[in-house]
């Protein structure tokens, strides 16, 4: 984690206090980090958006892209506050116009996401947002779609990161920032 300064460290710690840790979910040995508790509290929601906005300081971009579904929740206020457009990346079969899609590996099986073909224009500078960086599979698949359409990913933002799953390795070469980081899985 970069040097944040004492005031930001306090804000990040306060935001981390909103996260509810659920042991042994979805299976024994896993600690599930539930961020819905950030969303339900007005102060937690405001603080999370504020910290993500801070991560965008100095970043020139055209569009925010968010992954279904919590990437929508955090990406939309960023786009709104920066007067930028928002483009959703959705699960296969949810978008009505012509799309491009990408299949990617999950822990047990595969998933597929898609984006409207016309929503990313060549040369657009993109900020990708999601709630969690774990293995990096969803983010990398979304970035691949953006780049396939000619977009340039200038920043990749997450509210939370599980460092023990090495998602940053999958996103090597991109400017990745997470507000909260946990050393384990």
TrEMBL record:
Domain Phosphoribosyltransferase: 58-174
Catalytic activity entry: AMP + diphosphate = 5-phospho-alpha-D-ribose 1-diphosphate + adenine
Lineage, highest ranks first: Bacteria, Bacillati, Bacillota, Clostridia, Lachnospirales
Gene3D superfamilies (alphabetical): 3.40.50.2020
Family: Belongs to the purine/pyrimidine phosphoribosyltransferase family.
UniProt function note: Catalyzes a salvage reaction resulting in the formation of AMP, that is energically less costly than de novo synthesis.
Main location: cytoplasm
SUPFAM superfamilies membership: PRTase-like
Originating organism: Anaerobutyricum hallii DSM 3353
Organism superkingdom: Bacteria
EC assignment: 2.4.2.7
Record localization: Cytoplasm
GO biological process: adenine salvage; AMP salvage; purine ribonucleoside salvage
A GO CC term assigned to this protein in UniProt: cytoplasm
Swiss-Prot/TrEMBL keywords: Cytoplasm, Glycosyltransferase, Purine salvage, Transferase
Pathway as given in its UniProt record: Purine metabolism; AMP biosynthesis via salvage pathway; AMP from adenine: step 1/1
Subunit structure, interactors included: Homodimer.
Protein name per UniProt: Adenine phosphoribosyltransferase
A molecular function GO annotation: adenine phosphoribosyltransferase activity
């Amino acid at each position: 984690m970069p040097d944040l300064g004492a005031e930001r460290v306090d804000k990040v710690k306060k935001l981390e206090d909103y996260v509810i840790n659920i042991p042994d979910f979805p299976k024994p040995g896993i600690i599930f980090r539930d961020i819905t508790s950030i969303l339900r509290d007005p102060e937690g929601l405001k603080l999370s958006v504020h910290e993500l906005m801070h991560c965008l300081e100095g970043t020139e971009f055209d569009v925010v892209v968010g992954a279904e579904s919590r990437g929508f929740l955090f990406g939309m206020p960023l786009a709104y506050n920066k007067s930028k457009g928002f483009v959703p990346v959705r699960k296969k079969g949810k978008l009505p116009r012509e799309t491009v899609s990408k299949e990617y590996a999950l822990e047990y099986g595969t998933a597929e996401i898609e984006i409207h073909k016309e929503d990313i224009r060549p040369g657009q500078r993109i900020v990708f947002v999601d709630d969690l960086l774990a293995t990096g599979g969803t983010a990398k698949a979304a970035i691949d779609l953006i780049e396939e359409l000619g977009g340039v990913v200038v920043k990749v933002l997450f509210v939370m990161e599980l460092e023990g799953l090495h998602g940053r390795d999958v996103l090597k070469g991109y400017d990745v920032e997470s507000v909260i980081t946990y050393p384990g899985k």
